[in-house]
Amino acid sequence: MMLLRHCERLFKHGHCIKRLLHKSPSRPYTIVVPSVIGGKSTDRERVMDIFSRLLLERIICINGQIDDQMSSIVIAQLLYLQSESWRDPINLYINSPGGVVTAGLAIYDTMQYIDTPISTWCIGQACSAASLLLTAGTEGMRRALPNSRIMIHQPSGSAGGSVTDIQIKAEEMLKMKRQVNDLYVRHTKRPLCEIENLLERDKYMSPIEAKEFGLIDEVIEKPPAEKSSNS
């Protein structure tokens, strides 16, 4: 009750709190996205949701399932930060089980399209399409936290309809499988035959294993120490 009253007071004073509705098999529940003080404003304090505030620091978060809606938002954020500065790096934090392959590839293509360096970070998990986004960061800037997990596998899907329709969809999925294999080869520099064999089943890796495999460049526990002004 005290939390609800506090939220009501914030709304009365013009503060913005975004609510995200999550559905579960048992019941839907609401997550309140906190608001924080944003950048400087000559008129008054700017209040924005925490993710918008992080965007000002060139931080993008991929949390949860990768679908068309998330893909649209992430692509828009990437293009916006590219337009603001193509020299300053973007930090992409990933905690995702994967999702729709085409949505993931749309984000991937945008990452490769822009000139801005992109530092990718795995926090929690980067599975399926999310692992491709993790390894698609700028070489030398792909990192994972020590207790995160990375999983790679071949694309999956289902087909229905007439026999001809099923055949068409199956051929398209095989093309996509070869395409994804080639992308992993490109970023890990592993032989194609090794990638093909490994992606036949779910392959889970610790950050150290992912580094040895070439998916990431560094396992990191703390942010890199800032250089002193005298150095």
UniProtKB/TrEMBL annotation:
Keywords associated with the record: Hydrolase, Protease, Serine protease
InterPro entries: ClpP, ClpP/crotonase-like_dom_sf, ClpP/TepA, ClpP_His_AS, ClpP_Ser_AS
Domain of life assignment: Eukaryota
One Pfam family per UniProt: CLP_protease
EC number of this enzyme: 3.4.21.92
GO biological process entries: protein quality control for misfolded or incompletely synthesized proteins
CC annotations in GO: endopeptidase Clp complex
List of catalytic residues: S128, H153
Annotated CDD domains: S14_ClpP_2
SUPFAM superfamilies: ClpP/crotonase
Family to which the UniProt record says this protein belongs: Belongs to the peptidase S14 family.
Protein's UniProt name: ATP-dependent Clp protease proteolytic subunit
